[in-house]
Amino acid sequence: MQLIGVLVYVCTMENDDIHIDFENSIGPWLGKTVKIIDYAFQEFLKYKGLDLTKEQMIVLKKLHDKNGLNQNELAFLTLRNKSSLTRLLSKMERKNYILRKQSTKDKRVNNVYLTQLGKEIFFKTKPIIEEMITDIESNISEKEKEQIINILKKIQSNFNSKIESL
Amino acid sequence: MQLIGVLVYVCTMENDDIHIDFENSIGPWLGKTVKIIDYAFQEFLKYKGLDLTKEQMIVLKKLHDKNGLNQNELAFLTLRNKSSLTRLLSKMERKNYILRKQSTKDKRVNNVYLTQLGKEIFFKTKPIIEEMITDIESNISEKEKEQIINILKKIQSNFNSKIESL
DNA sequence: TCCAATTAGTTGCATATGCAACTAGTTAAA
DNA sequence: TTTAACTAGTTGCATATGCAACTAATTGGA
Question: A7 and B166 in contact by Cβ < 8 A?
């Protein structure tokens, strides 16, 4: 597992940047943290023997919350491009986790449903999600959790106005 | 720009999840924030007419900090797999931003250097990096910046032990 | 000295992703 | 009603990425 070395290294790495104070800015810290979490999640899924990516898991979860969402809605909820979603769903359909059903009201629309297998897979994945959440937040106080989420909300809103103005 | 709609939507979205408290956990907030930042960054680079991805920019920056790093070191510093780095460098070499030079001391090693063009591109990119950092941190106080970086460090260290124990 | 183990980098195969162009179905306006 | 504009989803082309298997070079131990 090559990346582990990388992660350990980076996490103990101090600022090596004397040109731009890049490593002491929020952005790079966010990026690294998410990379580490994503990697751990993927490892964890593999370790538990689940044939599933993090992205596919999120789709399963959204469908578990509300079965029959259409692809547009799923793309919105999972924060991805509709073409990316198309291909994600195709892979999941091939594995028989989900099912596309053309809407009778509007033939352009596909409603997406969990299959029995998809439900089972999600059921197996749920404790992993919960454990990931616990792991991320261990050693983090309730107050810190509030703090970080508030700061993240602020950052996001900074970019909403930014993107709209482009 | 399709994603903009997505971003605006998601950022005003409240917790729709009654099964697992996923949307009020740190993980998903981190993920969304990074996605938004990455997207804005990419848009910004395109807007400025730079033929460069965020990933390539990071490589340029690392080489600007220390020209002649080998691929192994670059992979470490940029937190990516060596095979991914190989291909990233190939694309950058094709664009004549960087140059691989085989080490005479150890013929297995490639030292990587910025070309003149690579230096120019980095020079043009630098203000964009600085503006991104400013954007991310606007409306964020110095104290909050410290807070979030500390929390992120804690989260990262949670996963160091986790990954090592797998 | 010579062979085994290690190391740096590449490549095949897989995933995920965005944009732009496309098809097909729907809506709205002339 | 008929056509233009829009919408949902797909596909081609591009990027980035990880793992495993590979090559070539180096190192270290018997």
Answer: no
